[in-house]
Inverse folding.
């Protein structure tokens, strides 16, 4: 399995040498303008049924029952503590989990600070950068696990246990997470940038293509995007919609005036030195995984990101959004199920990878 991963990463790197970079395709950053993407690349990973890895081995509950029986409790206590002073930690972790799993697999590659060959790591990719938060929280939690059970609980399981706890703190029923993942030895920004992570100005076709390539139905994509029920988006990622949509100099016509005015007030001084790129909550309950995000879409046509706005505009996804907006219990049940699938993507198991001592660097 490890050999397959090494070959895969090598192929990806080699391929990048042969094809033009994203910038050559008219890809701009930050998020104003651009947004086109090249033809779909090969799969870098694909979802398997929840709990099942590519090698058909299974992750399991109570993986640490003998080696570190309190592992989940330690994570839970640590995050509960963090949450008291940092309520946005739960959103940080859920996003971090997504960005880990969609790039090759749930292997904590997103947490590495260095690559042995000196290449840029996922963390420093333009798609992650300063807006991807939570790695420091995993450091704190992992340190507590190391104190009690040295060299036992992987960073990828630490992240999954923390995300599971974050979902509980955000109001979902408490449940045991699956364990048994190991940590990758590699992390490459170039792989993250190879159409494995979405951009907030993508079209619906681009979003559907990415999620389909990773093994998700449109319904599962909508449910996962319900994660935008928690946390924030910084003005940089969406204010094009109110100031200069698609370089027209006008607001996005799909935005009701009231919503556009509200967004302008939340993102003042755009284009001046006084602009501070403030964070704006996706909905009015940024620490609760409820269906308000979907309700706001349906009832007020209120969305921050362009990609989220496609969910109500597109007939392929609108009926699913409506279903989620009408039935909070359905959204919460499906969110847990699809997150199980997400957190099982391409896990490293058995003797593949390693159990890192610190999540920022591999052991040797
Ligand atoms: C088309 C797909 C997606 C796009 C384009 C997208 C884009 C973004 C952007 C631009 C932000 C704002 C970041 C910031 O300004 O700090 C954000 C935040 C967030 N995203 Fe997504 N996202 C997508 C899918 C997902 C999925 C599938 C999940 C999880 C399962 C997720 C979880 C989150 C969370 C929890 C936040 C809030 C983070 C925080 O407050 O720190 N997103 N997303």
């Amino acid at each position: 399995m490890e050999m397959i991963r090494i070959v895969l990463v090598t192929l990806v790197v080699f391929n990048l040498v042969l094809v033009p970079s994203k910038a050559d395709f008219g890809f701009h950053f930050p998020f104003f303008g651009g947004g086109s993407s090249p033809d779909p690349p090969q799969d870098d990973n694909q979802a398997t049924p929840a709990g099942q890895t590519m090698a058909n081995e299974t992750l399991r509950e109570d993986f640490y029952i003998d080696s570190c029986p309190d592992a989940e409790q330690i994570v839970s206590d640590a995050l509960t503590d963090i949450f008291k002073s940092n309520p946005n930690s739960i959103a940080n972790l859920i996003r971090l989990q997504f960005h880990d799993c969609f790039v090759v697999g749930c292997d904590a590659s997103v947490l590495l600070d260095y690559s042995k060959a000196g290449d840029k790591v996922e963390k420093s990719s333009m798609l992650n950068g300063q807006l991807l938060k939570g790695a420091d929280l995993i450091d704190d939690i992992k340190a507590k696990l190391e104190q009690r059970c040295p060299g036992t609980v992987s960073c990828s399981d630490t992240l999954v246990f923390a995300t599971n706890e974050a979902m509980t703190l955000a109001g979902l029923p408490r449940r045991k997470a699956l364990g048994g993942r190991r940590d990758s030895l590699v992390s490459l920004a170039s792989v993250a940038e190879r159409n494995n992570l979405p951009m907030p100005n993508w079209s619906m076709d681009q979003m559907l293509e990415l999620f389909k390539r990773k093994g998700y139905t449109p319904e599962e994509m909508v449910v996962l995007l319900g994660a935008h029920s928690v946390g924030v988006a910084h003005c940089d990622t969406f204010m094009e919609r109110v100031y200069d949509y698609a370089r027209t100099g006008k607001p996005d016509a799909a935005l009701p005036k009231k919503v556009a005015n509200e967004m302008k007030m939340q993102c003042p001084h755009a284009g001046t030195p006084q602009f501070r790129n403030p964070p704006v909550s996706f909905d009015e309950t940024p620490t609760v995984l409820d269906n308000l995000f979907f309700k706001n879409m349906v009832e007020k046509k209120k969305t921050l990101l362009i990609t989220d706005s496609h969910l109500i505009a597109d007939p392929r996804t609108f009926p699913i959004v409506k279903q989620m907006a009408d039935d909070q219990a359905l959204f919460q049940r499906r969110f847990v199920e699809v997150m199980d699938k997400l957190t099982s993507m391409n896990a490293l198991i058995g003797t593949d990878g390693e159990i890192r001592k610190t999540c920022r660097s591999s052991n040797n």
